[in-house]
Amino acid sequence: MAEAGVLLLSGLCLLRGFVLDWYQLSSGSMAPTLLGPHRHVACPHCGWNYACDALDTPPPGKRALCANCWTWGPELASLPIVGGDRILLLRGAWGPCAPRRWSVVAFRSPQRASRVQVKRVLGLPGERIELHHGDVYANGRIQRKSLTQQRAMAQLVHDAAHDPTRWRYRVQPQGHGWRSQGEGFACPPPQGQAATEIQWLTYCHQQPLGPHGSHREAPPLDRHAYNQNRTVWQSFPVEDLLLSCRLAWQGEGDLCFRMQHGSQQVLLTIALPAGELTMTIDGMPAGRTRLAPPKQEAQLWELSTFDGQVLLAVDGITLFSRELKPVAAASGDASRPLAIGSRGLSLAVRELRVWRDLYYYWPVAANRHAGDRRAVTLGPEEYFVAGDNVPISDDSRSWARAGVPQQLLVGRPLLLYWRSRTVHILGWQISIPQLSSIGYIR
Ligand SMILES: [Zn+2]
User: Model-level pTM?
Assistant: First the structure.
């Protein structure tokens, strides 16, 4: 047994440098996908867990603000600093390691070759890359993500299971229909007139107004709790959203989803149990199909408007997608962007979460050599890269020479194998692994 262990260790050492390598992240430019040195916060009010960047010393008295329930948590400086994530890397830039759009890549910094950086690939060799309203365009075409890619890049906006008061949801019409149930909501079997009108459960986004806990209805912004100890100069309303929930239904009627995307109002109506789906945009017919009849028991439903596209998936299988007009200008009226409706059905939803897409933009004057960019054309062996923590990432968007040359690629980050948090036990500070965070890097 001991011999096998020695052999395995020797094998790994031999592989290191040829096939595999491991690194510890030193910056939060890929957060929250991969974390740099950070502080772990468990919200004392709603129980939501999140990380805050720890590269800068917080001002005295600065407390953590929970982005899920907008209440103040512990003082940041009182929380121990946890080291960056450790990742396993498959070396090389060919075959399974060849960079593809939306894949995560490790490369030697074009500015300092001794430093390895980890970012996501947005543009491939020879492409002309533009960024408009958060979306990536290559050679004039908007680049869309698959469901798996959307999940990998989606940022949590709100988790109803961690919000016992459910104050971000509105019920229409009031008085009957949807009500809070367990960690979710239920719409009971309809009676009388309620059987013919749509009972809506609407997500109503809130932004804090100031340091006193007050807030107002506003569209979701591209802010993240991770950056609350950093200065972020710009923030943008994000209209590319994803709703996910476990949904069970009974009876006969219509399951409806309503989404606001830019100036477009999208309505999906699924007649159950038949599975006949119709889509309208601003009241005009825009699509029709027949789905495999969805099961009545709780399945995972996901509905997104990422990258100018409506996508509906059940249990991880994409059942319907249609292109939308990409957002041409922020509507400014998207504080109630998502709703679930029932006409004649009994519904129960739980694990109800709202997510947003990453929002890409050219940083203003981030690098005086880069100037005020609107587009970049990559060389024949260059890749356009950006960090998932878009507001603070230093990447192709701001470098004087935007593209990362092929010869600087190191390999493909494969596995997040160590993320820890520090706990106090009997006066000792002990690092324990966060097993739920360990996994494949997408
Ligand atoms: Zn909270």
Answer: 0.91
